[in-house]
């Protein structure tokens, strides 16, 4: 049986019964977004590699407990984000302060303003940085982010608004300096 | 302005993709974590039922024995046989130790005295920190530090698989061997994952060993020579071996500066002029005693700080030793037994020729024990 056309629920059912082909399709379908989410939250490739792999392991090991009336993706992404935040918080306890993301490849940056804005994003508090990256880096809507972070939608909106306000100040400042 | 900022962010925060290699490896790990299929579940339930039936029979036997002792019943159930030992199905902490970790068929098993554990995490290598507060493990192409319950403290890219790790006695540095571009490199990183540093770009795949003061680390260089890197003077010193002769293991004593070196046929002490024949021996120290594990026995030598050695009564091992570690109070060995099983066993250190022994883990013959770490 081929599972390429099957929906997530069918794949979850089959994977629960031990069907590796169905589990493989479920993995291939959602791995890219899970990894990008992990990268978005942590800003580090190696960490994203581990977190996304770990999240899939946990998700597959817990498939029997998954409530299949709910969609698979937000559940998976919640595991990813929780693992990423746990890891970053543990690192903060050890290192002190929010660990910064790894430097981004400069080749895509067009101006000094780009660099200033990236630095501003990286210096946001972790909670705000996460919603900004999920919104603009991954392209999730606020309601989707709320589901992934298990937060009220209003909290996501307010974090986004505050983050944008903070970034706008930096952005305008760099515009003035660059003029 | 707001839309302009948002468009700017969308362009700047474009997220890259994982490499195919990472994806392939993650798929393997995820599939391995799948629950057993329903058929296996049914057979497990059947096994449970059979076990329950066996337990009921055993209870009947006990009751019958009690009645027989009381003279109220004369009956025999089955043939009499000596009691087979009850083997643990989990990893046990040896007496006197805080924790034990083993890499079994590429997966980490860890148990602490306080009851924390990690079961079956895929790793290439692992070692416990001093006092077993953390475990450092090579996972994928990262070096990862975790609490003994599996919570990750930090993770850093290693640029390749980490195949051997040694945590300094003061806990402030970790030395690790990583495979990059077809060669093994010796690198160090601080205990919090910061400041990665290359010490030697061409070494053998051998676990490094820290000197007791944490200011030097011994390793086997690319030419098979034992080398000591001295952090105080930022210098390398070749201590033994010739190119091609092949040091195979190095082990600093837990106190002082004595360094034991195992080659293919002998064990020597650096600078002491002492050597003893030993075929492909594994090395570990239990206090001031050096343990050299050959295929069938653990040779023990008491070593004084000035390098004088006294041979002690060896401990017999019922099988081939595949991995070894020791603390002041316990010697832990991974053994492939002639009976076709593998086991992790412990002997209390310093309790004479016949110390109490424990089975910490029992495995099938096809399941190799790659490494062991005890604190």
What does this structure look like?
The complex is a heterodimer of chains A (179) and B (375). Chain A is an all-alpha fold and 179 residues long. Helix content of chain A is 73%, strand content 0%. Chain A is built from eight helices and no strands. Chain A is elongated, with a radius of gyration of 18 Å. The relative contact order of chain A is 0.10. Chain B is mainly beta and 375 residues long. The radius of gyration of chain B is 25 Å and the shape is globular. The chains are: A mainly alpha (179), B mainly beta (375). The interface between A and B is large, with 57 and 48 residues.
State the gist of this model.
The complex is a heterodimer of chains A (179) and B (375). The model of chain A has no long low-confidence stretch (mean pLDDT 80).
Instruction: Return the string of H and E elements of chain A.
Output: HHHHHHHH
Major sheet of chain B: 4 strands, antiparallel
Q: Which second-level CATH architecture of the largest domain in chain A applies?
A: Orthogonal Bundle
Helix content of chain B: 10-25%
Write down the domain tally of chain B. Answer: 2
Defining traits:
heterodimer; A: 179 residues; mainly alpha; Rna Polymerase Sigma Factor, Chain: A; Arc Repressor Mutant, subunit A; 2 domains; B: 375 residues; mainly beta; Methylamine Dehydrogenase, Chain H; four-stranded antiparallel β-sheet; 3 helices; 44% strand
Detail the topology: elements first, then pairings.
The complex is a heterodimer of chains A (179) and B (375).
Chain A: H1 8-16, H2 20-42, H3 45-61, H4 72-95, H5 112-122, H6 126-138, H7 142-149, H8 153-178
Helix pairs in contact in A: 1-2, 2-3, 2-4, 2-6, 3-4, 4-7, 5-8, 6-8, 7-8
Chain B: H1 2-12, H2 20-32, H3 38-69, E1 99-104, E2 107-112, E3 117-122, E4 125-128, E5 135-139, E6 142-146, E7 152-157, E8 162-167, E9 173-180, E10 183-190, E11 197-203, E12 209-210, E13 216-220, E14 226-230, E15 235-240, E16 247-252, E17 259-263, E18 266-269, E19 274-277, E20 282-286, E21 289-293, E22 297-303, E23 309-316, E24 320-326, E25 330-336, E26 341-348, E27 357-364, E28 369-374
Antiparallel strand pairs in B: 1-2, 1-28, 2-3, 4-5, 5-6, 6-7, 8-9, 9-10, 10-11, 12-13, 13-14, 14-15, 16-17, 17-18, 18-19, 20-21, 21-22, 22-23, 24-25, 25-26, 26-27
């Amino acid at each position: 049986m081929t599972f390429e056309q099957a929906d997530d629920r069918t794949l979850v059912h089959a994977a629960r019964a031990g069907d590796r082909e169905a589990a493989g399709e479920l993995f291939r379908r959602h791995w890219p977004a899970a990894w990008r989410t992990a990268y978005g939250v942590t800003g580090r490739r190696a960490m994203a590699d581990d977190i996304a792999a770990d999240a899939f392991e946990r998700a597959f090991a817990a498939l029997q407990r998954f409530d299949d009336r709910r969609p698979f993706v937000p559940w998976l992404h919640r595991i990813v984000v929780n693992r990423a935040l746990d890891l970053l918080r543990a690192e903060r306890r050890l290192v002190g302060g929010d660990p910064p993301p790894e430097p981004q490849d400069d080749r895509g940056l067009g101006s000094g303003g780009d660099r200033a804005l990236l630095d501003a994003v990286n210096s946001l508090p972790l909670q705000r940085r996460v919603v900004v990256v999920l919104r603009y880096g991954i392209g999730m809507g606020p309601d989707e982010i709320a589901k992934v972070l298990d937060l009220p939608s209003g909290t996501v909106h307010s974090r986004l608004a505050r983050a944008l306000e903070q970034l706008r100040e930096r952005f305008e400042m760099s515009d003035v300096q660059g003029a | 302005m707001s839309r302009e900022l948002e468009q700017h962010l969308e362009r700047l925060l474009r997220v890259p993709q994982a490499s195919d290699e990472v994806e392939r490896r993650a798929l393997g790990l995820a599939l391995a974590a799948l629950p057993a299929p329903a058929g296996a579940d049914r057979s497990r339930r059947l096994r449970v039922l059979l076990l329950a039936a066996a337990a009921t029979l055993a209870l009947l036997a006990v009751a019958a024995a009690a009645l027989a002792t009381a003279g109220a019943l004369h009956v025999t159930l089955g043939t009499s046989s000596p009691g087979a030992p009850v083997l643990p199905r989990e990893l046990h902490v040896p007496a006197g130790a805080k924790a034990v970790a083993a890499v079994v068929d590429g997966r980490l098993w860890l148990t602490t005295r306080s009851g924390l554990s990690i079961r079956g995490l895929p790793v290439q290598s692992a070692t416990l920190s001093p006092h077993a507060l953390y475990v450092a493990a090579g996972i994928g192409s990262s070096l990862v530090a975790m609490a003994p319950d599996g919570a990750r403290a930090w993770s850093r890219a290693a640029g390749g698989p980490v195949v051997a790790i040694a945590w300094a006695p003061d806990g402030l540095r970790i030395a690790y061997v990583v495979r990059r571009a077809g060669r093994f490199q010796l690198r160090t990183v601080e205990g919090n994952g910061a400041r990665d540093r290359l010490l030697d770009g061409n070494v053998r795949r051998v676990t490094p060993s820290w000197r007791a003061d944490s200011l030097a680390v011994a390793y086997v260089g690319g030419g098979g020579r034992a080398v000591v890197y001295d952090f105080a003077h930022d210098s390398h010193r070749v201590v033994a071996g010739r190119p091609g002769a092949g040091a195979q293991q190095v082990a600093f004593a837990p106190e002082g500066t004595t360094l034991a070196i195992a080659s293919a046929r002998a064990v020597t002490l650096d600078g002491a002029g002492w050597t003893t024949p030993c075929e492909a021996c594994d090395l570990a120290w239990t206090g001031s005693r050096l343990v050299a594990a050959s295929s069938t026995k653990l040779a023990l030598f008491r070593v004084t700080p000035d390098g004088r050695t006294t041979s002690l009564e060896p401990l017999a091992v019922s099988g081939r030793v595949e991995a070894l570690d020791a603390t002041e109070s316990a010697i832990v060995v991974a053994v492939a037994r002639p009976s076709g099983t593998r086991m992790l066993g412990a002997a209390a250190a310093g309790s004479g020729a016949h110390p109490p022994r424990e089975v910490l883990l029992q495995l099938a013959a096809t399941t190799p024990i790659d490494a062991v770490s005890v604190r």
